[in-house]
Amino acid sequence: MNLIKFLQERYSRFKEITKKHGLKRSFHLTLKHFKDDIIGNMKYKISRLFFRLKYGDSYADPFKVIWIDPSKIKKRASGSNRYCGAIEGEDWDLNTSPLGTHFKIRALYKRFKDGYSWEETGIIKNRKLNLQNRGIVDGLFSKEEILDYYKNEVEKLYQEIKEKGYKSQLELGNADNSKPGIEEVGVAIARNGEILKCGDGAHRLAIAKILDVEEMPVKVTIRHKKWQELRKEIVETERFEDLSERAKKKIGHPDLQDIVLEEWREKGNNLK
Q: Do the Cβ atoms of 197 and 104 come closer than 8 Å?
C-alpha cells in the first residue's frame, strides 16, 4: 500500500468514527493506530533486516503464501501479536491449546454445524464485552457493527467459500504480488514443523475446516528458531545425502518448498 492510499484510508476512517462516536474517541483511536501501524511497522522492518542478515537466503519472504491442509491445524499458539517473518526461540511453541477452545472457532462450529443463532453461539456477547472494555474490537466500533458483521459478512463469507471454494486474497483482489500473503490466515511453525494457528483469520480457518476444504493459503507470522535453523541447513547443504536425518524427513513440508530442489522432493518422498 502506498503512502497516499494509506493516508486517504486513515482519513476516511477518521471521519467515519468522528461522525459516529465523537472527536475525542477518534483522536484516541487515531493515535493508537499511528503507534501500531507506523511505529510498529518500522520496528518490524528493522527486525526483518536483522534476520535477513543473519539467515541469508534461508530467511523466507515474510509475505509469501504457503498452501496447507487446514485439517492439519489442531492447536493454537499462545498470543497473537506476532508479525510476518518473526523468529523466536525458547518455548512459545510448546505453550499451546486445542484449536477448539478458541471462542471464535467454537462459535462458528455452533453456527454452521449445529445450527445455533449467532446470539446463541455466545460470540455476540463476547464481542460486546470486549467493545465495552476496549472501545474497539476486530475493527468494529459499535454493537450494531458487531451484529451486522456476523449476520451479514461472516454469513456471506461462509456461503461464498461453500459455493465457489476457498480463494487466496490475491485472487480476491485484497493483496498484490509484492505482498501476496499479507491478508491471509496467520500460522506459526513450531520447532518440529507443526503448523499452529497464530494471528488473524480464525473465522476463515474455522469455515475452511467446517467445509472440509482440502487446501488453503496462509502466511507464516512466526517460526521457531530451531525450525529456521533447519531451513538454513537445507539452503547451505549441496547434496541431499549430506542433510541431517531430520531435514530429510521434513523435505516435503509446505514451508520448505521455496528452498527445496525438485530432485530432493522426490528423494524425500522415497524415504516415506
A: no
In order of 36, 183, 222, 261, the CA distances from 11 in angstroms are 16, 21, 31, 47
Crossing angle of the two packed helices 23-34 and 3-21, in degrees rounded to 10: 150
**Residue-wise pLDDT tens for the chain (272 aa)?**
455 665 666 666 656 666 665 665 566 566 555 555 555 567 677 888 888 899 999 999 988 999 999 999 999 997 655 667 899 999 999 999 999 999 999 999 999 999 999 999 999 999 988 888 777 777 777 888 889 999 999 999 999 999 999 999 999 988 777 777 778 999 999 999 999 999 889 999 999 999 999 999 999 999 999 999 999 999 999 999 999 999 999 999 999 999 998 888 887 777 76
40 CA to centre of own chain: 17
What is the distance between the alpha carbons of residues 65 and 185, in angstroms, rounded to a whole number? 10
Ranges of each domain in the chain: 1-58, 60-271
Q: How many Å apart are CA 195 and CA 76, to the nearest integer?
A: 9
Helix, strand, coil shares of the chain, percent, nearest 5, are 55, 10, 30
Q: How far apart are CA 47 and CA 125, in angstroms?
A: 38
**Measured distance CA(149)–CA(129) in Å, rounded:** 16
Q: How many CB atoms lie within 10 A of CB 64?
A: 18
One-letter amino acid identity for 53?
A: L
pTM: 0.83
